[in-house]
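Students often ask why inverse folding is considered easier than folding. One informal answer: many sequences map to the same fold, so there is more than one right answer. In these notes we will look at a single instance of the problem. The structure comes first.
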């Protein structure tokens, strides 16, 4: 069944931070012909950090498919979409099957999909805890496992987990979320060791406070307190995170595996 979607009336690409001239020239030189383009799959890729990562990889010359539970109203030009609920193994298989049939095998995976369900531990039910861990940690495990075999055949692959500074620092009211993001570090390093001999790198990016819908939902006083705690004195943008992801997906990061790259304005220093 054909489930891959490209928008017939694509939305214009969101405005992104301008690249430096030398960086732009380097991007242009590296753009491969279509038959040599690598195929990237970004889960949770229709908004926020996920969408910024997808657009970064697209600008880097890759063919990019984004996945999400809900069908987006419109897609930026150049992106394709496939339904993918990372808590559903059958839907994950269907998503990868569709990408492989219509585009080719995935060799760059950005596991970004995740949820929150905040609350103090004494008020947190077992389901509140396990549902977040299953989506954020279990979901990353499932999509990574499904992506590995094609990467092994290609003897080249990049797996990038989107973790969080909260996974190292902890956060009141986010025991479930923090546990899931901390677990990604152990998962990522284990996979890095298992598949290094096949030229597959596995790394993590750990964002701090980023301008997303999640942050926008907080009150002004809370956001001000967050900014005050960040040494650089501001919240980050999705493009800040995407730049790190783009690097880790590149040939320039070929000797980096099992690493966690903080994109947090210095908030987690020493964590």
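Output (designed amino acids):
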């Amino acid at each position: 069944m054909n489930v891959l979607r490209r928008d017939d009336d694509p939305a214009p690409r969101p405005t992104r931070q301008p690249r430096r001239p030398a960086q732009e020239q380097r991007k242009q030189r590296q753009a491969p012909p279509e038959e040599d383009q690598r195929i990237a799959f970004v889960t949770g890729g229709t908004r926020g950090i996920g969408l910024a990562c997808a657009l970064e990889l697209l600008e880097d010359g890759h063919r990019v498919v984004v996945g999400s539970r809900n069908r987006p109203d419109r897609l930026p030009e150049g992106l394709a979409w496939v339904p993918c609920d990372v808590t559903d193994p059958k839907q994950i298989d269907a998503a990868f099957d569709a990408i492989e049939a219509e585009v080719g095998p995935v060799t760059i995976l950005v596991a970004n999909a995740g949820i929150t369900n905040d609350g103090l531990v004494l008020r947190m039910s077992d389901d509140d805890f396990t549902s977040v861990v299953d989506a954020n940690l279990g979901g990353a495990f499932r999509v990574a496992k499904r992506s590995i075999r094609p990467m092994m055949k290609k003897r080249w692959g990049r797996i990038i987990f989107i973790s969080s500074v909260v996974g190292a620092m902890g956060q009141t009211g986010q025991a479930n979320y923090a546990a899931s993001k901390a677990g990604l570090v152990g998962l990522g390093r284990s996979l890095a060791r298992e598949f290094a001999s096949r030229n597959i790198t596995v790394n993590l990016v750990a964002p701090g406070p980023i301008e997303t819908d999640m942050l926008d939902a907080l009150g002004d006083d809370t956001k001000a307190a967050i900014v005050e705690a960040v040494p650089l004195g501001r919240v980050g943008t999705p493009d800040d995170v995407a730049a790190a992801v783009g690097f880790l997906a590149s040939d320039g990061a070929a000797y980096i595996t099992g690493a966690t790259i903080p994109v947090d304005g210095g908030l987690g220093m020493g964590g």
